[in-house]
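dumping this here before i forget
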Amino acid sequence: MSDSRTTLVRPPPQNPELSAIENTLELTELNAIGPDIFTNTRPLWHPPGARGVYGGAVIAQCLAAAQRTVPSHFTIHSMHCYFVLAGDSTIPILYHVEHVREGKSFATRTVQARQRGKCIFTTTMSFAREGSGGRETVHHAALMPEGITAPEPDLPGSRGDGSSGPPFESKRVAILNNDGEPNAKKTRQWIRARGKISEAGGHEAHLSALAYMSDSYFIGTISRIHNLWRFPTPGSAIAKSIEADPAAAEQMRRNKMTEGFGDDLDNRANRPEVGMMVSLDHTIYFHEPRSLKADEWVFTEMESPWSGDGRGLVFQKMWSADGRLIATCIQEGVVRLRQEAPPSESKL
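structure:
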């Protein structure tokens, strides 16, 4: 599929002065169609084997669009999102921003992401005026877990600009309480945007990047704490297509090793298999929106208080490397097990 089909206008060359994630999330304003309407400047990323576009991309582009419609002294503090339909990576997305409220201390925006005239995603965001809380405020924050060591510092010149590969990187950390009950387990990782986010992007670029990364490793927490098999069924058409591509097969092997399946790469233990896993909603509370740096290491910890009836709920806390709580996220999603086909009923 050519790029001209995945965007409304032909994508410009990658801007070398921007980080990979800034190029990925770039928007084009469509003044000719109407006010406060935007579209993705570049093709949308489609995760291998996934049903639709990466949810974090739609979350982040909705935030980026809304941020362009509020005064510069207003900053996002919360966004509440619903995934309505699976996004199609082969066609553009239109982002329609609605001005719900313009207050002295808070401003509200609703953004709908649409494809083929239908809403595929909707979010309502609240922006707070900088300094509106007053000179004296109450303050507390959850502490970063003890004993967490940040990744080794980059060697001079080793990081690159992030122009190739995915727009962010992650380093998994062993699951805490992995021998305990599912609700006691905590999945952890370090994440950061690749390259260096430009000064021109301002705090808005860092916020959009964090929103993008917040959807990584999220609802999948349910499958990990229940030790479910979440890879293509061995022998299936998808599994065979991956095996036919040496690079894809090696990446899949690494993914299985990372997930703790190194001793059973083909699910000979017959673990329960995930039949369907998709996000339903996504909430982000930004705690230090003007100071967070998404291109520096961020530590995330996820846990689930509940799963049942084909759904699961996950909480996520995000800390900067120096221990500041910068965001709290919540997500519920569909998590259905692959069901055995029922025996055919007798016609007698």
